[in-house]
User: What shape does this take?
Amino acid sequence: MAAAPAATADDAPAKGGKKKLIIIIAAVLVLVLGGGGAAMLLLKKKPADGEEDAADGHGKAETSEPVKSKPKHDPKHPPTFVPLDPFTVNLADKESERYAQIGITLEIDDAKTADELKLYMPAIRNNILMVLAHKTAAEILTREGKEKLSKAILYAAVRPLGYEVDEEEDEPEAPAADAAKKKKKKKKAARPALPVSAVHFSNFIIQ
Assistant: This one.
């Protein structure tokens, strides 16, 4: 029998090159498949984490809309401001003579009510003067005192229009025995809506 022909030197590099090409292709496929699998895992994990956070209430993304604060006044119906002539009045201080110069502006909900209020202006000014004349400098120098004065002026301004509103007085703390009695008392009737919604000070000087 004739012997098989021996492999030539040209065949060895060809086989070696094919093996290298196969190895390179396999490595590329491994990298591609591995990267794709990792990406799929990450994509699956993120929604799952988001769902867990939402369930626990600690998720960063919130689907609820922020609460919008309602404006105090309707922009289509702005309030009307009625400035009063400045008040100059002697205060109720006994140790020394003190007087106050106070500018007051009444805030009214609508222009029609403001016109009606002007018809009662002499009586309104008289009531406000009576309130100021019974105050001492110490009572109205503090912020709390000015707030109480503002409320007293508001009540005085609406009385000529037929609104009888008693000023709220600070009551001392009652002992526990009296607390049960207070619970039995009937609740006060709700106050009607007043035509004057606020009192603003434009000037406040005490001398």
Q: What stands out?
A: Residues 6-10, 57-61, 169-174 have pLDDT under 50 and may be disordered. DSSP finds six helices and four strands in the chain.
